[in-house]
Design the sequence.
C-alpha cells in the first residue's frame, strides 16, 4: 500500500543526522513538506533540504536548540511562516553523555534531560497549540495533528552507566502516554517509537568491530538496525493507516527488549 502525506507539513527535530535525517527524507518521499531542524550541524540539514527540493519536494532547514524555550517558539513560528500549517511533529532530538553515576556531572545530567525530555515537552506543547488552532484539515488527514516521540528501548531496559539517558527516555514514555490521554479527544494522535541498536553516530563505538559482535548477542534478530527501519515506521505512524493507534510505543529493536540473555538460562 502506498502512503501519501501530500499537503501535510512535518517538522523533524534533530534531523541533521541519524534517525531524524532518515525520517525527514522518508516523510518528504511520502509527499510531506519537511522542516529539517538541526542544532549545530547546519550543512547536512541544508544539503538534505536542497536534495528534497531538487527532487520536487518542499523542505527547509532551521537551526534551533530544542532545550531552549525561545528557540523552540521561533522554530515553530518559522515553520508556519514557511509552510502555513503543521500536521506532524517528530520529536527526535536526543543525545548521550555517558558516565558511571558516581562520576556523572550535574551538567551531563542536565544536558541530557534538557534535550531528550524537556526538549520533547517544549516541542510537543508548541505543536499542540498549533493543532488546536488548526483542527482537522478535511481531506488532508483524519487527525488534527500527529506527534511521534522518539524514545528508546531504554525507556524499559535499565542501562548502567547511562542513568541520565535511561531516565530521560523513561520520562519520554510517560510524557507521551499522558499527553495522548490528555489530547486524544481533540483528535490529536500521539505515539512513541523505541528504537534499539540502530547504526548512527550516537553509538558508532558500540555497533562496530568487536563491540558490534558483542552487541549482536543482545539482538535475537541478528543484525544492527538501519535508520530506514525506524524512518519507515515514522511514516506509517504519521499516516492515516495508523489512525486508530493512540498512546502506544512501537519497539523497533530486532527483539532487544525480549531479554535474550534469558535464552537457555534459568
Ligand atoms: C542508544 C544507543 C544504544 C541503543 C541500544 C539507544 O537508545 O542511543 O546508543 O546502542 O539504545 O542499547
Sequence:
Amino acid at each position: 500500500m502506498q502512503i501519501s502525506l501530500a499537503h501535510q507539513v512535518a517538522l523533524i527535530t534533530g534531523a541533521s543526522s541519524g534517525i531524524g535525517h532518515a525520517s525527514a527524507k522518508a516523510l518528504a518521499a511520502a509527499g510531506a513538506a519537511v522542516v529539517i531542524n538541526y542544532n549545530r550541524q547546519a550543512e547536512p540539514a541544508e544539503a538534505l533540504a536542497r536534495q528534497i527540493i531538487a527532487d520536487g519536494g518542499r523542505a527547509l532547514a532551521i537551526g534551533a536548540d530544542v532545550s531552549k524555550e525561545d528557540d523552540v517558539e521561533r522554530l515553530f513560528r518559522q515553520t508556519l511562516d514557511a509552510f502555513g500549517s503543521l500536521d506532524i511533529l517528530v520529536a527526535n532530538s536526543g543525545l548521550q553523555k555517558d558516565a558511571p553515576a558516581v562520576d556523572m556531572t550535574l551538567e551531563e545530567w542536565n544536558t541530557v534531560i534538557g534535550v531528550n525530555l524537556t526538549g520533547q515537552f517544549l516541542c510537543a506543547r508548541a505543536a499542540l497549540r498549533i493543532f488546536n488552532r488548526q483542527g482537522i484539515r478535511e481531506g488532508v488527514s483524519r487527525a488534527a495533528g500527529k506527534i511521534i516521540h522518539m524514545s528508546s528501548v531504554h525507556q524499559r531496559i535499565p542501562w548502567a552507566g547511562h542513568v541520565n539517558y535511561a531516565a530521560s527516555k523513561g520520562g519520554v514514555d510517560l510524557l507521551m502516554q499522558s499527553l495522548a490521554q490528555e489530547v486524544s479527544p481533540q483528535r490529536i494522535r500521539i505515539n512513541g517509537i523505541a528504537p534499539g541498536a540502530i547504526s548512527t553516530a550516537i553509538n558508532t563505538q558500540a555497533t562496530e568491530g568487536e563491540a558490534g559482535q558483542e552487541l549482536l548477542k543482545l539482538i535475537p534478530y541478528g543484525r544492527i538496525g538501519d535508520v530506514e527501519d525506524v524512518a519507515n515506521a515514522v511514516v506509517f505512524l504519521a499516516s492515516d493507516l495508523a489512525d486508530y493507534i493512540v498512546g502506544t510505543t512501537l519497539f523497533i529493536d530486532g527483539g532487544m527488549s525480549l531479554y535474550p540473555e534469558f535464552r537457555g538460562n534459568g
